[in-house]
Recover the amino acids of this structure.
């Protein structure tokens, strides 16, 4: 029930129609204080060429979800339940060596803060080559050094960098250039899914726009699906086709970008959209009342009920709402739409 | 008109020592402006990384000294004042920093950041009076004293911690509040509340605010006037209605066009934006020339002065060379009086 739509999609056409299907995924962290349900039953599906943005505040589980999709969840975190189908194959069942073959080939990560993900004592081109050699599907087809050099130059050109950058060290590059190198590595083996975890969070607006537009072009060229993880609703509006809103480890709403911004369904999404400052007119400052919950002590019933202006007494604090499709292409978990079905 | 805080042709150079073999980096290049005593306004200082905005903040607080030029507080050079005058400066100019985690000592309760300055600056006559003043300040920023005092910093959220810093500033009743990126590390849902309390400090408590940020959208929402810095120099300055809504300097235009609008109907155009600021070396002439779509020969040979192109706007650009040059490059003269626009008073979330 919780994962009705995505589950159906997975069963009917996981291999052909969708690049990625996530079904009732749960990622928990075991801590001395108790179990933290960082991702608590998330289901979604992505088609080739689609751009899905996952937004949420810190602690909403968006980055934990991104890491789980890469199968890079680190202890004390672990995937406790659910399935991730990548091109029809359930990667939650794979052994690490098999999973390693899929990274870069099938699914690649553009990390948050590329400055920390590049090796400071290795020239850029060797870092790109490293990725290719490490993940190339068939060892017998390992390209020779001349061919590798060519490939590095082509990749650098695709992300808007000159071949000279290949001979440089990361400290010689600006923040934007480093992020471009990270993108070159991510697309080096033409993955079908790209996970971009706040790829521009430390960059200036002008550079941010260049990087996002480059990412968009690369994605179109590969017809890859992109999951953009972020909290900047501006970037989401500029980049995504669909938006998923996360709150306290749960997906609370998912829909096409236009509709999410003009006609949000879930009260949390509504408040989030209303709280955005704009450049059109000076508005009252409207924040979301209350605070995000502590994941160790989640509220009963609907996790958003203590902050919700549309709170229904007797229902919201006792019963957790089902995540369901309430209109074509619109999914949400809120009692306000309990009786509605698509 | 006496200025409360005044910058006169302030420059700051880093590096470039005899043995470094490199020219010095001009973090700030001849900045002149002032914060008036009689009308408390909110002034934004905006710029990207490397624009010099943090250096400017440090100089305004007296933490850093300018390489050239002067910072005057009530007419006295901040670098030279001492004793009681220095203490008064420290009391009347209060900072709020970017990181609501690093401003606290994790071993002390939150109360510490409120009681210590209250005691040092002799706020209230007795312990009980200090306590009530602290509670008052917390209420003013939308916090419940009983849910805030007696806790350790890690027990509060980033937004709450940042609001305690605003309460601390309010408690001391400063004349100037210098907020350096106060919301950039706070979640979106809590930003509005913090900006609202900063706005209230100005509008109801008469405190002048200098809001340092990279975010033009919040700068537009909060401030009356703005100074846009580019690599240590003023590119454009004036009322936010003019500078942000109808930018005239090519750099401000590029910045405003690049803002990711939270509206899928207003998408970025595909304007080719050349290079990024940090990748470029020191330039002769206009610092923006290499990235400017309107670059002319003149831009490569001389630094454009600030031209007074609208009643409440100046820009340093040769495109406006027919307009009058601003006397002594002092931009404070063009600042608009505070506009209490259509905003119907702040809303407490």
């Amino acid at each position: 029930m919780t994962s009705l739509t995505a589950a159906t999609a997975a069963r009917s056409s996981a291999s052909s129609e969708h690049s990625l299907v996530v079904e009732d995924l749960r990622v928990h962290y075991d801590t001395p204080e108790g179990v933290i349900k960082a991702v608590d039953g998330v289901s979604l599906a992505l088609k080739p060429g689609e751009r899905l943005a996952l937004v949420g505040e810190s602690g909403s589980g968006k980055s934990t979800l991104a890491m789980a999709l890469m199968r890079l969840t680190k202890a004390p975190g672990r995937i406790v339940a659910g399935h991730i189908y990548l091109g029809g194959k359930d990667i939650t069942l794979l052994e690490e060596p098999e999973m390693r073959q899929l990274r870069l080939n099938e699914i690649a990560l553009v990390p948050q803060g590329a400055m920390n993900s590049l090796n400071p004592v290795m020239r850029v081109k060797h870092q790109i080559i490293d990725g290719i050699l490490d993940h190339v599907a068939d060892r017998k087809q390992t390209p020779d050094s001349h061919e590798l050099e060519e490939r590095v130059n082509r990749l650098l050109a695709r992300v808007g960098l000159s071949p000279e950058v290949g001979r440089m060290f990361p400290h010689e590059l600006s923040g934007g250039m480093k992020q471009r190198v990270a993108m070159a590595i991510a697309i080096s083996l033409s993955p079908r899914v790209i996970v971009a975890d706040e790829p521009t969070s430390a960059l200036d607006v002008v550079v941010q726009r260049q990087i996002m537009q480059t990412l968009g072009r690369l994605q179109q060229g590969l017809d890859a699906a992109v999951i953009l993880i972020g909290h900047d609703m501006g970037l989401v509006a500029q980049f995504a086709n669909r938006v998923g809103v996360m709150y306290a480890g749960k997906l609370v709403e998912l829909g096409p970008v236009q509709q999410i911004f003009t006609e949000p369904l879930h009260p949390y999404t509504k408040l989030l959209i209303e709280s955005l400052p704009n450049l059109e007119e000076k508005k009252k400052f409207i924040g979301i009342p209350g605070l995000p919950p502590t994941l160790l002590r989640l509220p009963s019933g609907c996790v958003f009920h203590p902050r919700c202006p549309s709170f229904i007494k007797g229902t919201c604090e006792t019963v957790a709402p089902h995540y369901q499709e309430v209109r074509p292409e619109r999914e949400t978990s809120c009692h306000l739409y309990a009786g509605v079905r698509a | 008109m006496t200025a409360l805080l005044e910058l006169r042709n302030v420059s700051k150079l880093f590096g470039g020592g005899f043995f470094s073999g490199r020219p010095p980096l001009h973090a700030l290049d001849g900045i002149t402006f002032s914060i008036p005593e009689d009308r408390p306004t909110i002034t934004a200082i905006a710029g990207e990384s490397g624009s010099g905005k943090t250096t400017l903040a440090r100089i305004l607080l007296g933490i850093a000294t300018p390489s050239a030029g002067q910072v005057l507080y009530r007419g006295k050079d901040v670098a030279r004042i001492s004793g009681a005058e220095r203490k008064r400066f420290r009391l009347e100019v209060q900072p709020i920093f970017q990181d609501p985690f690093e401003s606290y000592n994790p071993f002390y309760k939150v109360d510490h950041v409120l009681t210590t300055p209250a005691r040092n600056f002799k706020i209230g006559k007795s312990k009980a009076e200090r306590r009530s003043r602290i509670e008052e300040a917390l209420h003013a920023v939308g916090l419940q004293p009983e849910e805030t005092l007696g806790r350790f910093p890690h027990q509060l959220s980033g937004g709450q911690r940042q609001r305690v810093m605003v309460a601390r500033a309010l408690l001391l009743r400063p004349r100037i509040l210098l907020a350096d990126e106060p919301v950039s590390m706070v979640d979106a849902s809590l930003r509005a509340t913090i900006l609202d309390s900063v706005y209230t400090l100005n509008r109801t408590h008469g405190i002048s605010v200098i809001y340092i940020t990279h975010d033009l959208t919040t700068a537009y929402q909060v401030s009356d006037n703005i100074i846009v810095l580019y690599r240590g120099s003023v590119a454009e300055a004036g009322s936010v209605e003019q500078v942000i809504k109808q930018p005239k300097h090519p750099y401000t235009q590029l910045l405003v066009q690049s803002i990711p609008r939270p509206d899928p109907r207003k998408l970025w155009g595909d304007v080719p934006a050349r290079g990024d600021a940090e990748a470029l070396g020191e330039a002769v002439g206009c610092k923006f020339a290499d990235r400017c779509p309107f670059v002319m020969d003149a831009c490569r040979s001389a630094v454009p002065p600030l031209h007074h192109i609208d009643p409440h706007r100046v820009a340093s650009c040769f495109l406006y060379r027919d307009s009058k040059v601003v006397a002594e490059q002092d931009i404070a003269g063009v600042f608009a009086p505070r506009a209490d626009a259509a905003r119907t008073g702040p809303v407490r979330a």
In short: The domain at 4-102+193-292 of chain A is CATH 3.40.50.300 (Rossmann fold). Residues 264 and 270 of chain A are 5 Å apart (CA to CA).
